[in-house]
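Dear H.,

Thanks for agreeing to be a second pair of eyes. The structure we're designing against is below in token form, covering all 222 positions.
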């Protein structure tokens, strides 16, 4: 899952990104309102964490603009403004949730999980394809009931492939959804991680992850 964090407090942004990364999320950080809105419109993210006090365009205006353009990306608004009228303004601008600074990181993580469980963005918590089971609540993967230890990045790639079962996923799509924008589209890093996944699942004949030459990969349902 890929999250966009629009926050101009460098220290908070760095800390939040690290915490989200440790939970298995890919995170892009933008410190400017206009640039953040442009990034949110790219369709590359699963959730937006949006500060209100931002340079060039405040979070309220960004949120309104996105909703007026029918961008349905789940949005959590974060701000130091904790009065009732402020929370009402934030929610009325189109935010799905509102969190007052300072906040506990575990609360932010819980709210992210809750938003991603909502019907409009609901994702299955457990995926079972062939003899592979992925439990997204515990970030665990099993083959024939046996736990397969994966790194956060390996897990992220596998989850994306399994959620797009029988669909060809390009290397660019994997980069967009499993890495932040610092990685080059010309990197072969996705191939490296696919090789590692195959080794861990003993996938010598591409039973699970098949290479589509010149395009990308597909996770087979059978």
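And this is the sequence the design step returned. I haven't edited it by hand at all.
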């Amino acid at each position: 899952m890929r999250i966009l964090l629009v926050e101009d407090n460098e220290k908070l942004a760095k800390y939040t990104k690290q915490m989200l990364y440790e939970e298995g999320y890919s995170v892009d950080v933008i410190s400017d309102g206009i640039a953040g809105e442009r990034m949110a419109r790219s369709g590359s993210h699963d959730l937006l964490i949006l500060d209100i006090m931002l340079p060039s365009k405040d979070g309220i205006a960004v949120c309104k603009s996105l909703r007026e353009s029918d961008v349905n990306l789940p949005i959590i608004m974060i701000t130091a403004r904790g009065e009732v009228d402020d929370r009402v303004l934030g929610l009325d601008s189109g935010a799905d949730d509102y969190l007052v600074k300072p906040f506990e990181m575990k609360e932010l993580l819980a709210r992210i999980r809750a938003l991603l469980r909502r019907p409009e963005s609901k994702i299955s918590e457990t995926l079972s394809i062939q003899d592979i089971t992925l439990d997204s609540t515990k970030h665990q993967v099993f083959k024939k009931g046996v736990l397969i230890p994966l790194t956060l990045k390996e897990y992220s790639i596998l989850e994306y492939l399994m959620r797009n079962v029988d669909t060809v996923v390009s290397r660019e799509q994997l980069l967009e959804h499993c890495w932040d924008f610092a990685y080059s589209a010309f990197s072969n890093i996705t191939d490296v991680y696919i090789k590692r996944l195959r080794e861990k699942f003993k996938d010598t004949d591409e039973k699970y992850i098949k290479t589509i030459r010149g395009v990308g990969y597909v996770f087979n349902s059978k």
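Two observations from my side: Residues 129 and 221 are 6 Å apart (CA to CA). The longest strand covers residues 2-6.

Warmly,
E.
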